[in-house]
Design brief:
The chain is of the alpha/beta class. It has helices spanning 26-44, 54-67, 79-85, 97-100, 103-112, 125-134, 141-152, 174-180, 190-200, 222-232; strands at residues 11-14, 49-50, 72-73, 90-95, 117-122, 162-166, 185-187, 213-217, 236-241. A 4-stranded parallel sheet has the order 5-4-6-7, sandwiched between helices. It has a 3-stranded parallel sheet with strand order 1-8-9, with helices on one face. Helix 10 (222-232) links the parallel strand 8 (213-217) and strand 9 (236-241). The longest helix has 19 residues, at 26-44. The radius of gyration is 18 Å and the shape is globular.
């Protein structure tokens, strides 16, 4: 999105107090996400909301759209492009435990990959490793390899030629995963989401000189400060705690 719409101001809100979503149950996600986004929309008045989380989207997207009066773009596993790319007709879906068990994912596989074998693996550890990398740590190759093995070592897993990174954390580790499994192509929905945002805001005016992007956390601790330091290089301002922000965007 930063590349496609460089003048679009962004309020990036990370629910660090709720991290990680992938190990929470459906009832908690269904209640938490619409309520939090309602607070954010009221405070910052955005023209569009992106739910940049597969777990939140596959569980709570309908509730979010019902609760908000702005367009909402969700993030769902990129099974359709994976099926279009696969030569072996065996694809992997690598996500959180909460995402990979959702009926929404069953439906995507049935609609867009009916002639494929779709193997799934839920990993909480990869989420932690990706967060740590964003905060400046070097991820351990052996730990990433162990999580990939949870998918590739399943019966038929040796035939996987495309893996869907069905968690928005996982593309942060794509370089490491590609080095471990060079025969596999990794796909995610990032580019498609950016195009959808551009389509929904086509013809709208953006500031000629946009202010720094805002970075909001629901809990601001040592890890969040490390992540904020990395994101400052991408044009984000100092991190703020949601409870202490009072201005509108």
């Amino acid at each position: 999105m930063l590349a496609l719409l460089p003048r679009a101001p962004i309020v990036y809100a990370a629910d660090s107090a709720g991290f990680p979503y992938g190990t929470r149950d459906e009832a908690e996600i269904s209640g938490r996400v619409p309520a939090l986004l309602g607070r954010l929309v009221e405070r910052f008045r955005p023209r569009l909301v992106v739910v940049a989380c597969n777990t939140a989207s596959t569980i709570a997207l309908a509730a979010v759209r019902a609760a908000l009066d702005v367009p909402v773009v969700g993030t769902v596993p990129a099974i359709k492009p994976a099926a279009e790319l696969s030569k072996t007709r065996v694809i992997g879906v690598l996500g959180t435990q909460a995402t990979v068990r959702q009926p929404y994912v069953d439906d995507l596989a049935r609609r867009f990959a009916a002639d494929c074998t779709v193997l799934r693996h839920g990993s909480a550890r990869l989420v932690d490793l990706a967060e740590a990398k964003l905060a400046g740590a070097v991820p351990a190759r052996e730990e990433i390899a162990r999580e990939l093995a949870g998918l590739l070592d399943q019966p038929g897993g040796e035939r996987i030629d495309v893996i869907v990174n069905a968690c928005t954390h996982f593309p942060l580790l794509e370089t490491e995963m590609t080095a471990i499994a060079p025969h596999v192509r990794f796909v995610d929905g990032g580019a498609g989401i950016a195009r959808r945002i551009a389509h929904l805001t086509a013809g709208q005016d953006w500031p000629r000189d946009p202010p720094p992007h805002r970075l909001i956390f629901t809990r601001l601790g040592e890890r969040e400060h490390g992540i904020a330091a990395t994101l400052r290089a991408r044009g984000f301002a100092e991190a703020m705690d949601l409870s202490s922000t009072g201005e509108r965007a």
